[in-house]
Amino acid sequence: MESEQKTCKAVGIQFVIDADSNALLEKSASASDRTKKAECRLRLADHLQRFPSITKVGLCEENS
């Protein structure tokens, strides 16, 4: 995975999230003293590394 990350460059993305997810993101960002953008970036990176596959929210397979 590390070699794949070295060959890819950073990009900016923009997307819409639902109100419930936004509230959860705001709460977690506030609790960790991060901006929503920083919280989202950290959580997305963590999730992608931990879960190689996801079929829907709540159904994913964690790396062993």
| Low-confidence segments | none
Morphology call? globular
Helix content: 40-55%
Whole-Å distance between the termini? 14 Å
Whole-number total of structural domains: 1
> Largest sheet at a glance?
2 strands, antiparallel
Q: Which sequence of strands runs across the widest sheet?
A: 1-2
Number of helices: 3
Element-level helix/strand string: HHHEE
What is the structural class?
mainly alpha
> What's the total count of β strands?
2
Which percent band covers the strand fraction? 5-15%
Quaternary state of the chains: single chain
CA radius of gyration is 14 Å
State mean pLDDT (0 to 100 scale). Answer: 85
List keywords for this structure.
two-stranded antiparallel sheet, mainly alpha, 2 strands, 64 residues
Q: Can you offer a commentary on this structure?
A:
- The chain has helices at residues 2-7, 19-31, 36-50, and strands at residues 53-56, 59-61.
- A two-stranded antiparallel sheet has the order 1-2.
- The chain is built from three helices and two strands; from the N terminus they run H-H-H-E-E.
- By secondary structure, the protein is mostly helical.
- The protein has one domain (2-61).
- Helix 2 (19-31) packs across helix 3.
